[in-house]
Amino acid sequence: MQQRPRGSLTERVTERLRRAILDGEFALGEALSEEKLATKLGVSRSPVRQAFAALEQQGLIHVRPQRGTFVFEPTAEDTAELCEFRRMIEIEALDLAVVRQRVALVSSLAAAAAAMAEALEAEDYLQATHADYEFHDAIIQNSGNSYLASAYKLVSGKLTAMRSHQSILPSRQNASAEHFEIVGFLKAGDMLAARGALATHILKMAARYSLEPEAIRPVGIRMARSTALDHMGPLTG
User: Fold this and answer.
1) Where in the chain does DSSP place strands (E)?
2) I want to staple 112 with a disulfide (CB 3.0 to 4.6 A). Which of 15, 135, 161, 212 is the partner?
3) Is 133 helix (H, G, I), strand (E, B) or coil?
4) Residue pLDDT, tens place only, 94-141
5) 76-212: CATH homologous superfamily?
């Protein structure tokens, strides 16, 4: 019988927990129990502990000695800094992508914009979040610069989780409309307008991902129990 590669179980546990954070199964700031997760996933505590270490490196959880492990919870300052970082990275990536892969870029952006609009119309907000990610990832990937892609990957997980948790319907609809606007400028060859529209779109993130409802709860304080564990079953395969 062929053995699984060493570390594959930890990788699967890490990916399952990462997906739960990104897709909004766990709330921002929620306490995570190593023992309960191990039981639900049908594994020992060791791969869960190793998964926590990997997710902490990705900035998706915080391990606080003597207090516990929590899903990350961005402050207003964190969100503002993410906006600044995204603006610098994505504008530079857009400049490169237009020069190197213009046709592929516009095609990918148009497809992602359409997919997000369709998902919102169908009230499939998880799919809308995925399409939103695909739109911005297309800019990065078509830049043809692996270092830009690596830099963006440092925050892409946090951004996806914030989209899932914090963005409300009106802001999603506005973001969707702005995606079409950016595509329109690119199709028209108006690079200056496209850059400006993308920069404005990114800088609106702080308001769209408002943390006001969460601000009254100090970071690290246990939230009311979520139902995520109720739907989490043993790993398969």
Assistant:
1) 31-32, 61-64, 68-71
2) 135
3) helix
4) 999 999 999 999 999 999 999 999 999 999 988 999 999 999 999 999
5) GntR ligand-binding domain-like (1.20.120.530)
